[in-house]
Design brief:
Deoxyribonuclease I, Chain A, six-stranded mixed sheet, 26% strand, magnesium, double-stranded DNA 3'-5' DNA exonuclease activity, metal ion binding
C-alpha cells in the first residue's frame, strides 16, 4: 500500500499539477494540506474522475485538509483536533482507511516568533501530542502525516544557522516534535534514511529549488504496528520543478500488506 502526503498550496489553482501527479504516482491514500478553498469549492468531481474518493475540511482562503482513497472505503472519524473549541482553523482531519487510522494535519507556521502566532503553534502542538497519545493507546495501526512546519534536526534544513530564530526551527518547536515522536512514533523517512539530506519544501524565492536550498517539514509518523510494515519511503522531488506547482513536493511511504 502506497500512502502519500502533499501540501498542494491551493487545490484549485494547482489542480492540473495534483491530477498529473496522481496519475503518475497512483498512491492508494493521499493526505492533502493547504486546500485554500471553502468546503463547497473542493474539486470533488475532478478528484472522483481521477479514481479517488475524498473527505475534506475546507476553509476560505486559508488552511484546509483532505484525505483521498483509491478504491478503498474511507470512514471519517473527526475533522477537529480536540482541546480547543474556539479554534476555527481547518487544520486536521482523521479517517479509517483499509484498517489504518490516519490523521492528516497542517500544523501552524508560527511566525513571527515570539508572538501570538508562535504561542498558537505551541498550543496546537500540545493538543496534537495529547491526542496522539490517545491514538497510540488505542492499539490500532495509526499514521500521523502532513505538513508539521518543523525541521526536527539540522540535517533537515539548508544552512541551519540562518533559521535559528524561525518558528519552524526554534528550540521550543523542535522539542515539541521530539516529545511527540518519543511517545512511540517512528519518523518513516529517518528510519530508512537516517543520515541523508532530504527536503520536502523549497521556497519560491531566490531560486531555492534550483540551489536545493530546502527544508524537510512534511513528515510521516507511524505507530509500532506500521513501523514493522514500512518497506519504502521517498519524496517526489521532481514535482516541485513542474510549472505552476506547489512549493512542497509529495512525500510517500509504502507498507507491506
Amino acid at each position: 500500500m502506497k500512502i502519500a502526503t502533499y501540501n498542494v498550496n491551493g487545490v484549485n489553482g494547482r489542480l492540473p499539477v495534483l491530477l498529473r501527479w496522481l496519475e503518475e504516482s497512483a498512491p492508494d491514500i493521499v493526505c492533502l494540506q493547504e486546500l485554500k478553498a471553502p468546503q463547497e469549492k473542493f474539486p470533488e468531481k475532478a478528484i472522483e474522475d481521477a479514481g479517488y474518493h475524498a473527505i475534506w475540511h475546507g476553509q476560505k482562503s486559508w488552511n484546509g485538509v483532505a484525505i483521498l482513497s483509491k478504491g478503498l472505503d474511507i470512514t471519517e472519524k473527526s475533522r477537529v483536533l480536540p482541546g480547543d473549541p474556539e479554534d476555527s482553523h481547518s487544520r486536521y482531519i482523521e479517517a479509517a482507511v483499509n484498517g489504518i487510522h490516519i490523521g492528516c494535519l497542517y500544523l501552524p507556521n508560527g511566525n513571527p516568533a515570539p508572538g501570538p502566532k508562535f504561542d498558537y503553534k505551541l498550543r496546537w502542538f500540545e493538543r496534537l501530542t495529547r491526542h496522539a497519545a490517545g491514538l497510540l493507546a488505542s492499539d490500532s495501526p495509526v499514521i500521523l502525516t502532513g505538513d508539521f512546519n518543523v525541521m526536527p534536526t539540522e540535517l533537515d534544513v539548508y544552512k541551519p544557522e540562518r533559521w535559528v530564530d524561525d518558528a519552524l526551527f526554534r528550540p521550543e518547536t523542535r522539542a515539541a516534535f521530539k516529545e511527540l515522536v518519543e511517545q512511540g512514533w517512528t519518523d518513516a523517512i529517518r528510519k530508512l534514511y537516517p543520515d541523508e539530506k532530504i527536503y520536502t519544501f523549497w521556497d519560491y524565492f531566490r531560486n531555492a529549488y534550483g540551489r536545493d536550498a530546502g527544508l524537510r517539514i512534511d513528515h510521516f509518523l507511524l505507530s509500532p504496528h506500521l513501523d514493522k510494515r514500512l518497506i519504502a519511503a521517498g519524496v517526489d522531488r521532481h514535482v516541485r520543478g513542474w510549472e505552476k506547482t506547489s512549493d512542497h513536493a509529495p512525500v510517500w511511504i509504502e507498507l507491506a500488506d
